[in-house]
Specification:
Layout: H1 11-18, E1 25-34, E2 40-49, E3 55-65, E4 70-77, E5 81-89, E6 96-105, E7 110-121, E8 124-131, E9 137-146, E10 149-158, E11 163-174, E12 178-185, E13 189-197, E14 202-211, E15 216-228, E16 231-238, E17 242-250, E18 255-264, E19 274-282
Parallel strand pairs: 1-19
Antiparallel strand pairs: 1-2, 2-3, 3-4, 4-5, 5-6, 6-7, 7-8, 8-9, 9-10, 10-11, 11-12, 12-13, 13-14, 14-15, 15-16, 16-17, 17-18, 18-19
Length: about 280
């Protein structure tokens, strides 16, 4: 098993801060796996915005051909965008995954297509994403692992003009109880995060970012407490004194219910109180 992808550096802290808060929405998430090895998956998500009353849905089908180590994925969303993805694993070399993706928007008949490659060794992960339609762009990611240190780089290049659009860098130190991550994006945005597993029931995290252009600094503090095997409480507060609380109750092995509340400690913002509810079903 190799290092994580560039996007997953610091993921533990990101998930603690961002996941599980269905703020201002009613959310239903259903996932079903079938097959002898549970290799086929059907999932659907529905999001209802309480304020705007807008409804967004996603439907995904995933079909794995174990004999050829190949995965076929079909996606559709309520914006009438159809996506087809073909993943080929270890077909051309050990540790190499090739992915072909196409997207079609039925509303304006627009199309996008990408080819992705993912090469993994025990100490390295190298990814490429090349756009085949429209403006030719290549996104390259590299993550190198050395003991408990992960070093990542991202470069976005406009192939047509042979111009580098963006360069990003990230470094992360991973230990059993602490994960420290820092990043620099395009020499304008700098930030970092920390995740601490304080005990078997308590997780703490924080993230901070600074933009050198508008001189703005943002931060968020978060925590998660497992009150019991079936009941979890999460909370976070940001630099705008906005507090979010979420409770998740696992009814059984297949069904979980989530309730979320968000409010501000600033008196002028107290009318912005939001709530949200979620249902998760998996079998």
């Amino acid at each position: 098993m190799g290092p994580p992808s560039y996007q997953d550096l610091g993921k533990t802290a990101k998930d603690l801060i961002n996941k599980g808060f269905s703020i201002g929405t009613l959310k239903v998430d259903v996932k079903n796996r079938v097959g002898y090895d549970k290799q086929h998956e059907f999932s659907t998500q529905a999001f209802h915005d309480i304020k705007t009353e807008a409804l967004n849905t996603n439907i995904n089908f995933k079909y794995k051909i174990l004999k050829y180590d190949t995965t076929l994925i079909e996606k559709w969303n309520s914006k009438n965008v159809f996506s087809t993805i073909v993943e080929l694993n270890n077909q051309f070399a050990d540790g190499l995954k090739i992915c072909l993706e196409s997207n079609y928007n039925m509303k304006d008949n627009s199309r996008t297509a990408f080819i992705k490659s993912d090469y993994t060794t025990p100490d390295l992960k190298f990814n490429n994403k090349v756009s085949l339609l429209g403006v030719p762009t290549i996104k390259s990611y590299l993550v190198i692992a050395h003991k408990d240190i992960l070093l990542g780089f991202q470069v976005i290049t406009n192939i047509d003009k042979m111009k580098i659009k963006s360069t990003n860098m990230c470094v992360s130190k991973v230990t059993p109880y602490f994960i420290l991550t820092g990043y620099a994006n395009n020499r304008t945005t700098f930030g970092g995060s920390i995740f601490h597993k304080a005990s078997s029931n308590l997780e703490l995290g924080a993230e901070v970012s600074f933009n050198s252009v508008d001189k703005k600094c943002n931060y968020t503090l978060a925590g998660k407490y497992n009150m019991s095997p079936d009941l979890t409480l999460k909370g976070k507060i940001n630099n705008d004194s906005c507090i979010s609380m979420a409770v998740k109750h696992k009814v059984n092995n297949s069904l979980a219910l989530t309730g979320t509340s968000q409010f501000s400690l600033i008196s002028s913002h107290r009318k912005s109180h939001k709530i949200g509810f979620g249902i998760e079903y998996s079998s």
